[in-house]
Amino acid sequence: MPGAAGAGTGVRHRPVLTELRLSAFGSHRAAAFPLGPVTLFAGPSGSGKSQVLAAYAALAALGSGATLDEAFPDPSSRVPERAVPDAQQRLGFRVGCTVDGPVGPVRLDLAVQAEPALRIVGERLSQDGRILLSTALRDPARSSVQAAWLTGGAIGVTRAPLPDDRLGTALLPLRVAGSTAGQRQVLAAAEQVVVALRSVFPCDPRPDRMRAAVPSGEGRLLGDCANLADVLRRTRHECGTRHALLAGAARAGCAGPVSGLEVKARADGRLTAVLDRGPDRRPTELGRLGSGELRFLALALVLLTGPGVLAMDPAAELLSARQALTVLADDLDRGLDRRQSAELLRLALLSCGRGHVRLVGAVGESAAPGARGLDGVSVVDLTP
Questions:
Q1: In the structure, what pLDDT confidence band is assigned to residue 384 with cuts at 50, 70 and 90?
Q2: Is the dihedral of CA 213, 215, 220, 224 positive or negative?
Q3: What is the pTM (predicted TM-score) of this model?
Q4: How far does the chain reach from its first CA to its final CA, in angstroms?
């Protein structure tokens, strides 16, 4: 498989997910997927591509402080097919990941009860086979789990209740003092996992929301890319190099001649983005472009920018140069032709080769063959 997990520049210095585990999640059982700088999940409809990205997005949300019901709005759909409830009529699912970074590989595993009530019933944070944090549901009548984390020294382990609707690993920095070697190991591992999970941007450009003029704002791109014109206004003035790269991508992925990307303010103050068609040709408002062209431009912008321009909340305690943004894109090739898909992969490899950006996407069977032969791209083939 080209582009093995963990390859690329700076993996050990920037926390990143190098493996996603779906032990029992939707249509997946005992599945472990290595993740490289550019990883594409390919397969026909029903093969579980969207389930993989949904699991990743849910872990990212939990790492950012979301509650279980926010991370899993439809938990019953994540219960494995043909699962049989236990004597208490409980059903659930299990997911996990490995995060590599400055302290080495750290594993996070999570067991979630979906029915009769959504709650975490078990969590484990471990490194080199050593358990740093474990939680278990001891009393179903209480909305908490019993947690135990490594302390070291004379005490050995600290025990305390934690909420059963939040990721315990994300709460540890608020609960652990770091006064012993054991506590410092726990904190370092937890912070590495949280930084990686918070550095995720789920992206699904919606052309139907990108055609209208938008008000001028702070220029942070939304997940549906509806405010594309406002973000282009910002990037044009703040980073000429990236804006020039985006204009070059537009020339490669949009029909007709393209001299540049501009933003115009209407009389009401709202903004519209336009393609400059060159001398003696009228510019084309982006709202008049095809859906595939709009999705292509939005995805290209995401790959060429960074957390400061995206509507996300990365770890503020770590410099952006020490973080790797991971873009999650389900149906990455939806509405795109082969030329546009190839240009997006070229941009992904350009950005990901520097170690600052990673891409995890799902593509259909038509886009997969062109990606398989690219050095640096990992294609994971799924079957129904």
A1: confident
A2: negative
A3: 0.91
A4: 21
CB 168 within 8 A of CB 133: yes
Q: In degrees rounded to 5, what are phi and psi of residue 181? A: -60, -40
Residue 203 or residue 1, greater confidence: 203
Average pLDDT over residues 291-304: 95
Q: Give the Cα separation of 100 and 20 in Å (integer).
A: 12
Summarised one tens digit per residue, pLDDT across range 257-266 is: 999 999 999 9
Token couple for 139: 């009393």
156-162: long-range contacts at Cβ-Cβ below 8 A with a sequence spacing of 24 or more?
162/135
CA distance 84 to 356: 43
CB contact at 8 A, 218 and 343: no
Range with the lowest mean pLDDT among 53-57, 103-107, 322-326? 322-326
CB 331 within 8 Å of CB 204: yes
Q: Rounded to 10 degrees, what is the CA torsion of 265, 271, 277, 283?
A: -70
Residue reference for tokens 């690329």: 8
Task: Say if strands 106-115 and 91-100 run parallel, antiparallel, or are unpaired.
Answer: antiparallel
Cis bond before residue 80 (omega within 30° of 0):
no
Per cent of the chain over pLDDT 90 is 74
Rounded mean pLDDT of 148-169? 92
Say how far apart CA 342 and CA 247 lie, in whole Å.
16
In angstroms, the Cα distances linking 307 to 145, 193, 297, 315 are: 34, 17, 18, 10
Residue in 293, 207, 295, 304 with CA at minimum distance from that of residue 251: 293
Residue 3's pLDDT is what?
A: 37
Q: What is the pLDDT of residues 59-88, one digit of tens each?
A: 999 999 999 999 999 999 999 988 888 888
The CA angle 324-125-94, to the nearest 5 degrees, is 90
Q: Give the type of residue at 218.
A: E
